[in-house]
Amino acid sequence: MKYVIYVLPFLFFFACQEEEQQKETTVILVRHAEKDTTDKSDNPPLTPFGRQQAKDFTKIVLDRGLSVDHFYSTRFDRNIHTVQPLADHFNKDIGIYEWKEWHEAADKMKAQGGTSVFCGHGDNLLPIIKHYNGVPPLEKLGSYENDKLFFITVKEDTALVEMIAY
User: What is the DSSP string of 63-79?
Assistant: First the structure.
């Protein structure tokens, strides 16, 4: 019995290490929903269709049974309003990042673990997939291509990417 007492702490330590190494992070990348292109400001609102896309995005995530721990968006209304319905569902705040400085937010999502939603723009979503060592399923996103969701499972130095159109 004396030996078991000494062995158990080591077994517990190694079991915890194994669990830590197996930790996965899920990142859901979404481009802002359809914006009002008649508004020539740098902060146009969503169109009625864009507001419906935000609701559809929320339904897709909830239908998958995912619980979201963290939300990130640029300061633009079109981005915030794309993820706001889902953030409200989980009673979560939305962290703001600068659209050109997405690296820090991407690294933070990986370090935090759990599930994060990242609302970006056409020029930063595919580079984030590459940042996680994933393979983007598209070469580029078109100017009005805001109907794609990317579910990324990040584990250690690999990333599995699933894209769906909605």
Answer: HTT----EEEE-SSHHH
